[in-house]
Design goal:
Elements: E1 4-5, E2 8-9, H1 14-17, H2 32-35, E3 40-41, E4 44-45, H3 50-53, H4 68-71, E5 76-77, E6 80-81, H5 86-89, H6 104-107, E7 112-113, E8 116-117, H7 122-125, H8 140-143, E9 148-149, E10 152-153, H9 158-161
Antiparallel strand pairs: 1-2, 3-4, 5-6, 7-8, 9-10
Length: 168
Amino acid sequence: CTMIYLGRLLSSDRKQCICIMIYLGRLLSSDRKQCICTMVYLGKLLSSDRKQCICTMIYLGRLLSSDRKQCICIMIYLGRLLSSDRKQCICTMVYLGKLLSSDRKQCICTMIYLGKLMSSDRKQCICTMVYLGKLMSSDRKQCICKMVYLGKLLSSNTNQCSCIMVYL
C-alpha cells in the first residue's frame, strides 16, 4: 500500500491505505465493509467513518448503499448537502425534475429545481405552472387561474382569470 500516484505518497500504512480509491472510483480492496467509505477521489477524503459516509453520493448521483431509508437524503451532489433529515428532504427534486419519492401528495410541490424552492406548501403550489407552462395538477377548477408564468401571478380568482391568455 505504499502508493506513489502522480508523485504523491498517499499512505505508508497498509491498514490505512488498503481501501483508498484512487483510479476511476475503483476499490483497491474487495472488502466492501472496510473500504466503501474511504474515498480519496479527486483528492478529497469525504469521511473515514463508515456509518457517516456509507450513503454519501459522490459519483453521478449514485447511492453507495442500497438502504434507501438511510441514504435517500444524504446528498452531496455538486458539493451541496441538501438535508440530512429524511422527513425534510424525502421529496426534494434535485436532478432533472424527478421525484425521489413516489408519494405525489407529499412531493409534488417541493421543488428545488435549478436551485429554486417554489413552495413547500402543497395547497399553495399544487397548481403552480413552473415548467414550460404545464400544470402540476389536472384539476381545472383548482388550477386554471394560478398562473405563475415568468414569475407573475395573474390571478387566484377563477372568475377573474379563467379566460386570461398567457401565451406570448
